Amino acid sequence: MMMAWIFLLAGAAMLCIGLALMARTRRFLRRAERATATVTGTTTASVMPAEPSTCSTLRFRAADGTEHACESRIGVPGGAYAEGRQVAVLYDPQDPANAVVDSWIELHLPWLIFTLVGTGQLLAAMAVLVLA
User: Fold this and answer.
1) Has this prediction a pTM greater than 0.85?
2) What are 46-85's pLDDT values in tens digits?
3) How far apart are alpha carbons 101 and 88 in whole angstroms?
4) CB–CB of 9/111 below 8 Å?
5) Is the distance from CB of 80 to CB of 88 less than 8 angstroms?
6) Gap between the Cα atoms of 111 and 92, Å rounded
7) Which of 30, 42, 78, 94 is deepest in the core (most CB within 10 A)?
8) Rounded CA gap, 14 and 37, in Å?
9) How does strand 53-61 pair with strand 86-92?
10) Is the pLDDT of residue 45 over 80?
11) Average pLDDT, the chain
12) In this predicted model, what pLDDT tens digit does every residue of 22-34 receive, in sequence order?
């Protein structure tokens, strides 16, 4: 019974994090401007030693003409965008360092994962509590 309460609390926390990330993404999209970035390199992170993730390093020019650098937020196992490739980015005009590759995965996957896992945990915990 105690595990069900732990799952309920963890699910509620994850759902809240997912909804907060979704709200932050929506606010970002309302004010973001689009630019074309060039991939200048890659960085590798070893989240899972067996298969390290690779993120792209990008450079873009904002609407005011200043040049900025950013890194893709989602690492890809086994590779990233090829160096020299051009990709669309969205950036905050008040804070151009806050930029993200304009892709569904980079924009929506983080909040979607938290929301779905949190909802699943909540439903499982509630089913256990109701059936107990």
Assistant:
1) no
2) 665 666 778 888 999 999 999 999 988 777 665 667 889 9
3) 6
4) no
5) no
6) 19
7) 42
8) 33
9) unpaired
10) no
11) 89
12) 999 999 999 999 9
Q: Give the DSSP per-residue string, the chain.
A: -HHHHHHHHHHHHHHHHHHHHHHHHHHHHHH-EEEEEEEEEEEEE-SSTTS-EEEEEEEEE-TTS-EEEEE-SS-EET--SPTT-EEEEEEETTEEEEEEESSHHHHHHHHHHHHHHHHHHHHHHHHHHHH-
How far is the CA of 132 from the CAs of 4, 40, 125, in angstroms?
A: 10, 57, 11
- Give the confidence band of 95 by pLDDT, cuts at 50, 70, 90: very high
Residue with tokens 């907060």: 20
The reported pLDDT for the residue numbered 78 is 58
